[in-house]
Write a structure and sequence with these properties.
Elements lengths: L4 E5 L3 H13 L3 E5 L2 H11 L3 E4 L8 H11 L5 E5 L4 H9 L4 E4 L4 H12 L8 H5 L2 E3 L2 E4 L4 E4 L2 E4 L2 H12 L4 E3 H8 L5 H18 L6 E5 L3 E5 L1
Parallel strand pairs: 1-2, 1-3, 3-4, 4-5
Antiparallel strand pairs: 6-7, 7-8, 8-9, 10-12, 11-12
Length: about 230
């Protein structure tokens, strides 16, 4: 499989070299840029798989760089790597098209996980074990690879989105999963229309799993959902 190409824009070159070397050791191809203008030129030349951008950069800051990129490209994932952590900065980044936000200092392992999630088909980091094996949700057998639930001799066929949602809830079973995380992982953003879609799919999953009364998909009002049994 071809290496994942990451465009890394970081004006702190010492940090940039450390991150690049760490990623290259893990078989990533990294294009390191020292400022936003250079990053834009390299983006146009190489069309990387994903971009990791600092916000505070000379010549062209991360926000302005992303605006220029999003004029041409609405698809390529972008992660902001920055010490700016005020809510207004986070919101501003997402509003102009960022897909994720990683606060400095960060671990390269966390960066890699976020890259893999953003480049995965469903924006989920699903382990091979979960994909290849049937798992138990209460007394139901859940097959995430084939999008189905089974109970005794009854088979319930799920849509791909229902299966993705259940799989994410299963991975965090007995824990609260926020609506924001569900929306961003499955739909890419948490706008009003996607929020309504999530409500619909939650209702569908409840109906599917009602065959096993011990399973509950609890709505934590204003926060998110918890799958328990």
């Amino acid at each position: 499989m071809d290496k994942i190409t990451v465009l890394l824009a970081e004006d702190e070159l010492a940090l940039g070299h450390i991150v690049r070397e760490s990623l290259e050791e893990r078989e990533f191809n990294v294009i390191l840029c020292a400022d936003g203008a250079q990053a834009y030129t390299q983006y146009l030349k190489h069309k990387p798989d994903i971009l990791a951008l600092d916000i505070m950069m000379p010549k062209l800051d991360g926000f302005e760089l992303l605006k220029k990129i999003r004029e041409k490209d609405k698809i390529t994932p972008v992660i902001f790597l920055t010490a700016k952590s005020q809510v207004k900065d986070v919101v501003a980044g997402f509003e102009i098209g960022a897909n994720d936000y990683l606060k400095k200092p960060f671990s390269v392992e966390e960066l890699i996980v976020r890259i893999k999630v953003l480049l995965s088909t469903n924006r989920l980091l699903i382990s091979t074990k979960t994909l290849n094996n049937i798992v138990k949700v209460g007394d139901l057998d859940f097959d995430p690879a084939r999008n189905k639930l089974e109970f005794n001799k009854t088979t319930i066929h799920l849509t791909a989105r229902e299966s993705e949602l259940l799989n994410l809830l299963y991975q965090h079973k007995h824990e609260i999963v926020s609506r924001k995380i569900l929306l961003e992982k499955l739909w890419g953003n948490d706008n009003f229309f996607n929020a309504r879609s999530l409500d619909v799919f939650i209702t569908k999953l409840r109906k599917h799993m009602a065959i096993d009364p011990q399973i509950q998909l609890i709505n934590i009002r204003g926060v998110g959902y918890k799958l328990v049994w």
